[in-house]
Amino acid sequence: MSDLLYISEIFSSIQGEGMLAGRRQIFVRLTECNLDCRYCDTDFEKTDMGRLESNPGSGRFINIPQPLPLNKLSAIVNDWQSQLPGAHHSVSVTGGEPLIHADTLAEWLPEIRKTLPIHLETNGTMYSALRQVKQFVDYISMDIKLPSTACCTEQLWDLHALFLSEAHGSNVSVKVVVGELTPESEIRQVCDLIASVDAATPLFIQPLSMPDGSIGVTAGQILHLQELASSRLSDVRVIPQMHKLLGAL
Fold first, then answer.
1. CA nearest neighbour of 24 among 35, 12, 32, 36
2. CA–CA dist 154, 21 (Å, integer)
3. Is the model's pLDDT at 1 over the cut of 90?
4. Which domains does the chain have, with CATH numbers?
5. Which of 26, 185, 202, 226 could be cross-linked to 173 through a Cys-Cys bond (beta carbons 3.0 to 4.6 Å apart)?
6. pTM value?
7. Distance separating alpha carbons of residues 249 and 242, to the nearest angstrom
8. Can you list the positions of beta strands (E) in 106-200?
9. Residue 39 CB: number of other CB atoms within 10 A?
């Protein structure tokens, strides 16, 4: 087990997606991912330098050498919490795919959880890795990657099913990114998957954000997909990427 993590960036901002949308968080973005989704807007390559916001919420960054010792990472979180008491709801561990680093997270999360709750953002494929850390996580935001928008090289339905089963009993929610070409069949499959584990699991439908900032799906299509999902599941919500609408990180 390592006491070092490769960090892409650390910053303070408003969570723009899913269950905790609107909450301010300390974001710890880790490097590396096991997928290559078409709409991904983050740089998760491992480098010798990461980025640290010079002051929480400033939007100004300094470079920090990689990998970062866990005690220094904890010190940053604790310092920001001391600077802005009560401002941050939780720490969002994101990526890339943070569960690639499950061994190290299992060492770090129990410590940082003494300061703030932990929110895990994951692509919902690494179910064995989730088993290592789920007891230290307060919120799990799981993506289901739709072929129509993610354009991954493999079908992920079976992995998503195993992941959601592993997450069952935790505070888990599911997010899907939909576009104009998202067919009803994909939403039905999402509903089937969720209902097979727990139909009360919240589902967040997120309109695809285009590189120019526009939304890649019409309001009519969003409403249609929401109607379809709501006929099968008890908690379906539509939330665009709020942080992009705010111009936040």
1. 12
2. 29
3. no
4. 4-246 (3.20.20.70)
5. 202
6. 0.93
7. 10
8. 118-122, 139-143, 172-178
9. 16
